[in-house]
Amino acid sequence: MSTAQVATDSGRMPRQIRYIIGNEACERFSFYGMRNILVPFLISSVLLGYLPAGPDREGAAKDIFHSFVIGVYFFPLLGGWLSDRYFGKYNTVLWFSLVYCAGHACLALFENNATGFYTGLFLIALGSGGIKPLVVSFCGDQFDQSNKDKAKLVFDAFYWIINFGSFFASLLAPLFLRHYGPAVAFGIPGVLMFIATFVFWMGRRQYVNVPPSTNDPHGFMKVVRSALAWRADGGNAGGIVARGALVLAVAMLLGWAGHATAGWPTWWPESFGFVITACLALGVIIAGGGIGASMQLERARGAHPDAAVDGVRAVLRILIVFALVTPFWSLFDQKASTWIIQGREMVIPHGAWWWPSWLIQDAAQMQALNPLLVMLLIPFNNLVLYPALRRMGFQVTALRRMGWGIAISGVSWIVAGVLQLWIDGGEQVSITWQALPYLLLTFGEVLVSATALEFAYSQAPMAMKGVIMAFWYLTSTFGSLWVLLTNAGVRNDAVTAAIANTGLSENAFLMFFFAGFAFVAAAAFAAYARRYPMQDNYRVSGAG
């Protein structure tokens, strides 16, 4: 590990950024290479051979995929905490990357063994999730007040390179699976992850390493505890809210455990497995603790510096923004599950002279449109769209971009729903029609996710950047949670009957449902964004 240092090229682009960008390109190929073939592999694999081909197996594959995504975006909490508290970003990224490599090896070696394969998924979720909040914030650490104007370019470049790796992974991995089998298709991403780890290690002597905060007496949790502590001289409504949330979370977990214990009566729905229950319990704890702390945060003044208390207030505001973004991820992540399943019902126009049949042979490859469009839309937005809007008098703020992105993602699902109606009506629908919802969803993604990388870093207090980035990635966990809850709901006979009464197929109904979910979220986001106070928490030049 290198020692903490400050970039000497004041006002210029940090030279060490190239190693971080190179690492990210290879790691993203690695991740998306395996992720984008996971659902097609599971549908056709012996791992789900106990289920009949068709909706049951497709539904099980979706559940496994979204449970994996939940893990990927849950473990940033662990990585962020270990980094901020003990090891620092560099060491944490390096060690979790080695776990990540081991997970890829398991997928390649155990394609027909459920225990080995699912162990690999767990290790990839742990490794990928552990490094996910840190690489972005580690990149931000290389900047200070003297060159923060270049940070936006790098964050955009960072997001562009993510999609550069994702494009080739989305395009090639389905071909590897089709022509060479799972061992090669999952093995190649493993090799790329090893290269990513090596490239990151190469820059070790040039990085700015902000030291971990260790046991900060004025850290986020210490301030929250002070705010929620019982006092004899006054009420503690906030503490009651927080403790009530904790009791409810424990009751939910005990309710789930009741289904596995003979003779133990339980009120908890049996269709809510451990993953759903644990995520809901986590959400209750975060919401109850945050609401309780915000109710009486001023109590912590005196016991902690004003800056620490104000920092916690800023974090709680950020968490509200993050919560309102979660519906977007419920739409976005289904492009690798629901949209692939829809694409398998569509016709690939191999007979058309303009269709590259030598390259595009599988519905899963349509996902390559997403990163390709991102690479085109980011420079288009920065060089054409945003300047044009500013000349017209519109302020293109980060929060406005994110709100519009959520709404536009809803429009993409309206289009996908219309395509599903055509399919349900018996028409032979060309898969090229999926390009339109992909374009709309990707435009929404650029407005939400690319913007949020800079927003989350700039809004977080210096001592909590790793953790706040972890909370940002946790939004994807709750996005997939909404999908799992919906999948569990449609297995209920009453819900299934209600959907049938609409005259829509289950797939079409759910597509329009998620579109409406996005529109409601966008309206709530816009209402909150109007009163959100923006912060500037870049490192001061000369501070290590």
From TrEMBL:
SUPFAM superfamilies: MFS general substrate transporter (SSF103473). Keywords: Membrane, Transmembrane, Transmembrane helix. It is found in: Membrane. The chain crosses the membrane at residues 37-53, 65-83, 90-110, 116-136, 157-177, 183-203, 240-259, 271-293, 314-332, 368-389, 401-423, 435-457, 469-488, 508-529. It comes from the Bacteria. The keyword Transcription regulation does not apply. Its main location: membrane. It is a multi-pass membrane protein. Belongs to the major facilitator superfamily. Proton-dependent oligopeptide transporter (POT/PTR) (TC 2.A.17) family. This is MFS transporter. It comes from Luteimonas colneyensis.
